[in-house]
Amino acid sequence: MDIVQVSAELAPWSKTGGLGDVCGALPRALAARGHRVMAIAPRYKAYEGAWDTGARAQFHLFGSRHEVAYFHLLRDGVHHVFIDHVSYRRPGIYGDEHGVYGDNLFRFALLCRAALEAPLRVPLDGGPMGEACVFHANDWHTGLLPVYLEGLYRSVGRFPLAPCVHAIHNAGHHGAFDAHHFAGLDVSTRWWPACDMDGRLNCLKAGITLAAKLVTVSPSYARQLCIDHGHGLEGLFAHRARDLWGILNGIGPEWDPATDKHLPAHFSADDLSGKAACKAALQRELGLPVRPEVPLFGVVARLDHQKGIELIMGAAPWLLRQDVQLVVLGSGGAQYEDWVRRMAREFPKRARGWVGFSEPLAHRIEAGADLFLMPSRFEPCGLNQLYSMRYGTVPIVHATGGLADTVPTWDPASGQGTGWAFPDFAVDGLVQAIGWALHTFHGHKDAWRQVQQNGMRRDSGWDRAAALYERLYGSAFG
Ligand code: ADP
What residue spans define the domains of the chain? Predict the structure, then answer.
C-alpha cells in the first residue's frame, strides 16, 4: 500500500510526547512490512540530511496566498517529508513561554493542505506517489485533512479512492476556535456542520466525522471514548463505534536496555546485572545515596492534569517518610512544577526533581529506577509504562485506557502480571498499590524478579501493531 501519515510531531525530529514517538515509529514498522510510506510533518527547523526537493505548492488561506516547500529524507525505508513555511520555524511546536501561538489553526490547516499535495508533487524513487494512497491523520492538528480531501479534491474527482483514517492519541485536545475562523479555511460552508461543535470550529470533531475509519491507541480507550472519556464527543464516538478501532502502540528500538545509547551499562531479561549498575549511576548522577537495597521510584511525564500528578502529590508525604528514593522528571503546569521543586527541597536525602525535558535522563530513569509511578486520570495508551516494563522497572498505574490494557497486576498464585494497577482514581488506591509493590520488593525477591522479567519479555514491538494498521487501512479502502 501507499500510506501517507500526517502529524504535528515526528520523532526524532519533533516531539513533545507520545504522539511524536508513535508517528516516528509506526511508519518504520509499516515500511519494514513492504509498504511505501510517507511521514509528513512541519519543518520546525533545518534537519540534517533533509534536502529541498524543489517541489512547491501555494494555498489560499485566511485571506492570502502561502507557499510551502517540500523537504525529503529517506531513512529506515520511510520517506520523511517536511513541510517548510515560515510559520513553523519557531522555538516551540505549539507555543513558547508566552503561551500557545495565536495562529495554530492556520499553521495546521496549512499542514493539511500541503500534505494532500505531497503524494502528487514530491518525487520519490520512481516519481510522485499518486492518488491511490491512504491518508493517516493524527489528532486535532490534522482533523481538517478529510474536510479538504472531501471538499477540494473528491468533489472534483481527485483522489477518488483514497480514504482518510483518523488516529486519536488524545481526545482531550480538540483544536477548537471561534466560528468566524471557518471563513479563512477556504472550503465551502457545506462543510461547516462537520466542523461545528457547540457553535465553535472543532478540528477534532471534523476528523472524527469525516474520516473513513477511526483508530485510537488502545482497546480500552476506544470503549471509554464512547462512554465517559470523549471530552464531550462521546455521542459522536458512539455513533461511529463500528468504525473505531483500538490498536495498542508498540515501542521503538531506541528503547532497548540491551543497546540504549544513553545508558552507562546494558542489560536484558536474562542478565539484569547491568540494571544494578544503571541504578547506582543514576543515584550518583542525582546526588542521592548510592544504595542498591533502597527502592528507587521514577516519574517521567508531562506535568498535566491528565497525568494524575495530584495522586503522587497526595501520596508523597507518606511515601517519603519511608526509606525510599524518588526522582521526578517533567515539565508543564506551574503548580506541578512548583511541587516538584518543593518536594525535592523538603526531602533532600530522598527526592530529586528535574523540571524540564531531557530525553537522555528519561532513558536513565527508566533504566535505573526500580518502580515507575503512572497514576494517569485517563491514558489513551501510555508509553512510559511500556518503556518501564521493557527496562525491568515495575510500573504502578491507574487502571484506565492503555494502562489497564498493558499492566496486569502481579498475581503470586499464577506468577503472571507485570506491575500493579489500582482501579479507583484516588490517593488511597495509589498508596495501597505502592504498599503491595514494596512488600514484594523487600520480602519476596524471587517474585520481584519474576514481575520484572514478565514485563521485560512482553511483546511490545511495533510489528504486531503495524499488522493491525494494515488491516485497518484495508478496511478503509473497502
Ligand atoms: P503523553 O503522550 O500523554 O505525553 P506517553 O506516555 O504516551 O504520554 O508518552 C510520553 C513520552 O514523552 C515518552 O516518550 C516520555 O519519555 C516523554 N516525556 C514526557 N515528559 C518528558 C520529559 N520531561 N523529558 C523527557 N521525556 C519526556
Answer: 2-250+462-477, 273-456
Q: Which residues of 310-344 are buried (b: 16+ CB within 10 A; e: fewer)?
A: bbbbbbbeebbeeebbbbbbbbbeeebbebbeebb
Q: Coil, strand, or helix at residue 101?
A: coil
Q: What share of the chain is helix, strand, coil (3-state, %, to 5)?
A: 40, 25, 35
Pocket test for ligand 1, best of 22, 384, 387 (most atoms within 8 A of CB): 384
Kindly give the confidence (pLDDT) of every residue in the chain, 478 residues in length, as a single tens digit, with 9 standing for 90 and above. Answer: 999 999 999 999 999 989 999 999 999 999 999 999 999 999 999 999 999 999 999 999 999 999 999 999 999 999 999 999 999 999 999 999 899 999 999 999 999 999 999 999 999 988 899 999 999 999 999 999 999 999 999 999 999 999 999 999 999 999 999 999 999 999 999 999 999 999 999 999 999 999 999 999 999 999 999 999 999 999 999 999 999 999 999 998 899 999 999 999 999 999 999 999 999 999 999 999 999 999 999 999 999 999 999 999 999 999 999 999 999 999 999 999 999 999 999 999 999 999 999 999 999 999 999 999 999 999 999 999 999 999 999 999 999 999 999 999 999 999 999 999 999 999 999 999 999 999 999 999 999 999 999 999 999 999 999 999 999 999 999 7
> Could you confirm whether domain 2-250+462-477 is CATH 3.40.50.2000?
yes
From 249, 383, 388, 405, mutation site for ligand 1 pocket: most ligand atoms within 8 A of C-beta: 383
301 CA from centroid of ligand 1 (Å): 5
* Topology annotation, domain 273-456: Rossmann fold (3.40.50)
| Measured distance CA(249)–CA(391) in Å, rounded | 17
Residue 17 Cα to ligand 1 midpoint, Å, equals 4
In the reported structure, the alpha carbon of residue 16 is separated from the centroid of ligand 1 by a whole-number distance in angstroms of 7
- Phi and psi of 216, rounded to 5°? -130, 175
> Which atom of ligand 1 lies at the shortest distance from residue 16's CA?
12
122 vs 6: CA distance, rounded Å: 14
**Nearest-angstrom CA–CA distance, 41 and 25:** 14
Ligand 1 centroid to Cα of residue 384, in Å, is: 7
Pocket of ligand 1 (CB under 6 A): 17-19, 21, 300-302, 329-331, 357-359, 362, 381-384
One-letter amino acid identity for 141? H
Q: Confirm if 325 and 398 have CB atoms less than 8 A apart.
A: no
Ligand 1 centre to CA of 73 (Å) is 25
Q: Is the pTM of this model over 0.90?
A: yes
Pocket test for ligand 1, best of 300, 359, 379 (most atoms within 8 A of CB): 300
